[in-house]
Amino acid sequence: MLHLRAVCPPDRTGEALDVLRAHAGTAHLVVHRGVAVSPEGDLVEADVAREAADEIVDALCALDLDHSGGITLEAVDTALSDAADAAEEAAPGEGADAVVWQELLGRTGEESRLNATFLAFLAIACLLAAVGVLTDSAVTIVGAMVVGPEFGPLAAIAVGLVLRRWDLVRQAGTALAVAFPVSMALTFGVVLLGSVTGLFDADAVVNNHQVDFVYKVGPLSLVVALLAGAAGMLAMTSAKSAALVGVFISVTTVPAAGYAMVAVVAGDWLRFLGSLGQLVVNLIGIVAAAAIVLMLRRRVQRSPSMERPLSRG
Questions:
Q1: Scanning 86, 154, 278, 280, which has its CA 20 to 30 A from the CA of 8?
Q2: Tell me: the pLDDT tens digits for 7-57?
Q3: Chosen domain end from 56, 75, 98
Q4: Is the pLDDT of residue 309 over 80?
């Protein structure tokens, strides 16, 4: 179940209530008259089945509540109610398979913004990857994969391409185009400083064979990227978000970026080019597979509000 809250101008409250009452996937409908302060109006609350949420949100957006008021959704972890059970039974489909398009747009839009936090996570992930390469530690490489935040913008690009939301594509593309070079430059500086001061020997990377998979790009690299992109988009468009951790561990985008900088310091240009190739293959493969999955899901479920401009809220 999802908990829906809608701030409504008083003249729209009746219509909003009609929308919610008319849908069998609604339970626990509550109205608070005149409690909203900014913007002023009434507060309408309800629990809705996930598989009904997209249709209900579209109907509320058709009343212009996303501009004249506000609509929020949050997951309900536990609902002990016969009414809630009945709503989930009455709503068509399965909750785990339902795509809430506005939720997807909001989530990918938020995770694809270029900010200090995104830069910090990507830089730390690249540095961890470099340490993993220098110490021949596959465990540290896996840690770098988990820390890396790059899947958010990649998913946002796929969403933007499929839904023709070019504002989302630009936002996510800018985040990746800026964050990766900055993080790689920082990693290069740290590795170079460590090499000059004798903290470690970058040339030793030639004998570190446990992490060779990072720079050895091939057909299987594309296969893994495609599978990861498909799994990631399935997780983002359903209630199975826990699967994203496995997606992070399976792709070598951040490790490849870190390895490339270690290879530059070591003067190993073949491994540098191989790492860059691995990075590009993974980025393209993830976006392509995520877009294909999203197109297939869109054929089954379409939403008229998907064409609205990206909200900054």
A1: 86
A2: 999 999 999 999 999 988 999 999 999 999 988 999 999 999 988 888 899
A3: 98
A4: no
Which residue is listed with tokens 């359903």? 238
User: Facing residues of 72 across strands?
Assistant: 5
188 has a pLDDT exceeding 70: yes
Task: Give the angle subtended at the CA of 277 by the CAs of 292 and 242, to the nearest 5°.
Answer: 45
Place of tokens 């009414």: 83
Positive or negative: CA dihedral 66, 74, 98, 253? positive
Ramachandran category for residue 41: left, alpha or beta (phi over 0 → left; psi -120 to 50 → alpha): left
Show the 3-state SS of the chain: CEEEEEEECHHHHHHHHHHHHHCCCEEEEEEEEEEEECCEEEEEEEEECHHHHHHHHHHHHHCCHHHHCEEEEEECCCCCCHHHHHHHHHCCCCHHHCCCHHHHHHHHHHHCCCCHHHHHHHHHHHHHHHHHHHCCCHHHHHHHHHHCCCHHHHHHHHHHHHHCCHHHHHHHHHHHHHHHHHHHHHHHHHHHHHHHCCCCCHHHHHHCHHHHHHCCCCHHHHHHHHHHHHHHHHHHCCCCHHHHHHHHHHCCHHHHHHHHHHHHHHCCHHHHHHHHHHHHHHHHHHHHHHHHHHHHHHHHCCCHHHHCCCCCC
pTM: 0.80
What's the confidence (pLDDT) of residue 96?
62
The CATH code of the domain that includes 70 is 3.30.70.120
